[in-house]
Design a protein that fits this description.
By secondary structure, this protein is an alpha+beta fold. The chain folds into two domains: 60-262, no CATH class; 279-392, no CATH class. 46% of the residues lie in helices and 21% in strands. It has helices at residues 2-21, 40-54, 133-141, 148-155, 176-180, 193-208, 280-295, 301-311, 316-340, 346-368, 372-392, 396-401, 403-424; strands at residues 60-61, 65-67, 70-77, 85-90, 93-100, 113-121, 124-129, 170-173, 186-187, 215-221, 226-233, 240-249, 252-253, 257-262, 267-270, 275-278. The strands form three sheets. Strands 1, 2, 3, 4, 7, 10, 11, 12, 13 and 14 form a ten-stranded mixed sheet that branches. A hairpin with a 2-residue loop joins strand 12 (240-249) and strand 13. The longest helix is centred in the last third of the chain and has 25 residues, at 316-340. It starts with a helix and ends with a helix.
């Protein structure tokens, strides 16, 4: 009998322990909308707020394909009283870089750090409610001094910003010696998520430059929570898949919807530039420049650089790199023809060529460390100085003082005439 009662006690105790571990005796959760006595009104409001946050906005688009840009009408439903922000980005990526040489406000030291990512979306834009148009106009008036991170906060668009902030960013401790030997510098440790997101905002501005390219006030939100927006994808952008998602706060976003942007020849996509270009324009422009450039004894690159940057939306780093090999074509044909009429001094040419080899290591790395504005400023002054110098050398007073130069010109003319007669004979 004792064994029976002992066994019963053990069994009941074991059952009690198992039920307790399973939570059978825990406090029952309150039904939705039921509040505890203490602070009932506050908790009810918090519950309603959390419930509204849990409802993600819906997204519908009127078309899934564009031909070199166009307009997509976006509609959907969001929680009542919430502003709606649309984040749009391209699947294709490009490189973006920023050289931080600004003096620290506290220490006065300059960091000289190069930030770079190869995963920046070729197109990225946040569409904000129309009520933010005045704030957007204020940002535009700031000109080059506008801050992307500040603009996100002022427009409330920081709730939608996510894609660039999640992309990997590399950073290098740049040095002058590193640039001379063709290096970006010493790689620095990987940043944490918060720092990575902060630097990504700076890279967005460095890549797209203008606030109009990354913000637009086109979302019309109605009192019932429905919204509508006309998303304009401009011409000359990257082809491929684009994604669009809606956000009402940082924790409530819709699933992305996608559409395609197609291009056809003569449009070609420049993968490292993140833009599409009609080939006929650069072809005929370069044809005219090559004729004029070779006539002056140059490849024409000094003319092509500012024109390509000004006419087409191509980054100055890509323009500088692209023009270099293209000049070889005009230089090659020019060298052949000038050698036939004996106008080349090979000794001087080799000496100058060695200097160009050294400069070829330094130039590309320095190009990464300057902005488009700095590039245009320096290049513009160089062209003005060269133009002034060449104009001065054509004045009658200069030519009169330089009889030797006139003699050289006459000798060149004589050799050219003799070469022409030999060819005819």
């Amino acid at each position: 009998m004792k064994r029976f009662w002992l066994s019963l006690v053990i069994a009941v105790t074991a059952a009690f322990i198992m039920l307790w571990q399973n939570g059978a005796f825990a406090e029952k959760p309150k039904p939705a909308g039921q509040a505890v006595k203490s602070g009932a009104g506050t908790d009810a409001k918090a519950g309603a707020k959390n419930a509204s946050r849990a409802v993600a906005p819906t997204v519908l688009i009127d078309k899934t394909s564009l031909n070199n840009g166009g307009t997509i009408i976006v509609t959907g439903q969001a929680p009542v009283g919430k502003p709606v922000y649309l984040e749009v980005w391209a699947e294709k990526t490009v490189r973006a870089s920023r050289f931080d040489a600004e003096a620290d406000k506290e220490t006065g030291k300059r960091p000289y750090i190069l930030y770079m990512t190869h995963e920046m979306p070729a197109y990225y834009k946040i569409f904000v409610p129309r009520e933010q148009k005045e704030n957007l106009d204020i940002i535009r008036k700031e000109g080059k001094k506008w801050s992307y991170s500040k603009a996100l906060k002022d427009l409330g668009a920081d709730v939608a910003y996510s894609v660039p902030g999640a992309r990997k960013i590399d950073r290098y401790q740049a040095t002058l010696m590193g640039s001379i030997i063709g290096s970006r510098g010493t790689p620095l440790p990987t940043m944490d998520e918060k720092e990575n997101a902060k630097r990504s905002m700076q890279l967005v501005k460095a890549r797209f430059i203008s606030s109009d390219k990354v913000f637009s006030a086109d979302v019309e939100v109605h009192p019932d929570g429905s919204y509508k927006a006309e998303i304009k994808i401009r011409k000359g952008l990257a082809p491929g898949t684009y994604y669009l998602s809606a956000a009402v706060d940082k924790n409530t976003k819709s699933r992305p919807v996608s559409f395609d942007n197609k291009i056809n020849f003569p449009l070609v996509y420049l993968s490292n530039g993140g833009t599409s270009v009609n080939l006929f324009g650069p072809f005929f422009l370069t044809l005219a420049i090559a004729i004029f450039g070779v006539l002056m004894g140059a490849g024409g690159g000094f003319i092509m650089n500012p024109l390509l940057v000004s006419i087409w939306p191509i980054p100055h780093t890509i323009v500088a790199g692209t023009v270099m090999p293209t000049v070889l074509f005009s230089q090659g044909s020019g060298i052949y023809n000038y050698s036939k009429i004996k106008f080349i001094s090979w000794k001087l040419g080799v000496a100058i060529g060695l200097a160009m080899v050294v400069g070829g290591f330094i130039g590309p790395k320095l190009t990464e460390l300057i902005t488009l504005e700095q590039f245009k400023f320096v290049f513009g002054w160089i062209l003005l100085i060269l133009a002034g110098l060449m104009f001065w050398q054509t004045t009658p007073g200069y030519l009169e003082k330089n009889k030797k130069e006139q003699a050289i010109l006459k000798e060149f003319k004589k050799k050219a005439e003799e070469a022409a007669k030999t060819k005819q004979g």
